């Protein structure tokens, strides 16, 4: 059974780790952000993910995208006059740098299973599901929102927890899109980090090549 880390807000924000049945049995908060395993039906998490999908009425299109290995996607639909649903899947190349004795960086597979050098066969996959219910009350009653992040990066989890716990979490209810801004900012950082890792490796190779060319000329 999958253990989920959850940040929830009823009157004040709390953070807890619970199984899916325990999470469902709790009082429904106004705002809830759930960090879950990757949305892929592996035996270890199958029952938990199935219960999660059923309880939050996650569209079948969301699961179909993962099963068919959709790299990047964005979906939206409105179930009635108040319920809005948004989801997306992202894929980013993971690059692991190791430094040799001379300090030069090289890309290596962290699993140690790739026979070739300068390769990393791992990927950063994640899925995001956001449902919010727009309040029709005229007394200023806030909206309700649930966000599930499947396979979040550590920085993303930390940033969302910080947004909810250390900031005015009611602002996220007024504008749930601000939660997606945090998600997209994390994706940008993943791409930017991969870019700089490739830059560092190529820069080191260029420096070695230049030094060798200089030595040949001197000889």
Please outline the helices and strands.
Layout: E1 3-9, E2 13-19, H1 20-25, E3 31-36, H2 46-55, H3 60-67, E4 73-78, E5 83-93, E6 97-99, E7 105-107, E8 123-133, E9 144-150, H4 154-165, H5 170-174, H6 177-218
Helix pairs in contact: 4-6
Question: What would you note in describing this structure?
Answer:
Helix content is 38%, strand content 28%. The protein contains 6 helices and 9 strands, in the order ββαβααββββββααα. It has helices spanning 20-25, 46-55, 60-67, 154-165, 170-174, 177-218, and strands at 3-9, 13-19, 31-36, 73-78, 83-93, 97-99, 105-107, 123-133, 144-150. The longest helix has 42 residues, at 177-218. It is elongated, with a radius of gyration of 22 Å. The N and C termini lie far apart (67 Å).
List keywords for this structure.
seven-stranded mixed beta sheet; 219 residues; two-stranded antiparallel ribbon; 9 strands; 6 helices; alpha+beta; single chain; elongated
Strand and helix order: EEHEHHEEEEEEHHH
Which regions contain 5 or more consecutive residues with pLDDT less than 50?
A: none
Largest sheet: 7 strands, mixed
Question: What is the overall shape?
Answer: elongated
Strand neighbour order, sheet with most strands: 2-1-3-9-8-5-4
Give the class from helix and strand content and strand pairing. alpha+beta
CA-to-CA gap between the ends? 67 Å
Helix content: 25-40%
Radius of gyration: 22 Å
Number of strands: 9
Report the average pLDDT across residues: 79
Strand content: 25-35%
Number of DSSP helical runs: 6
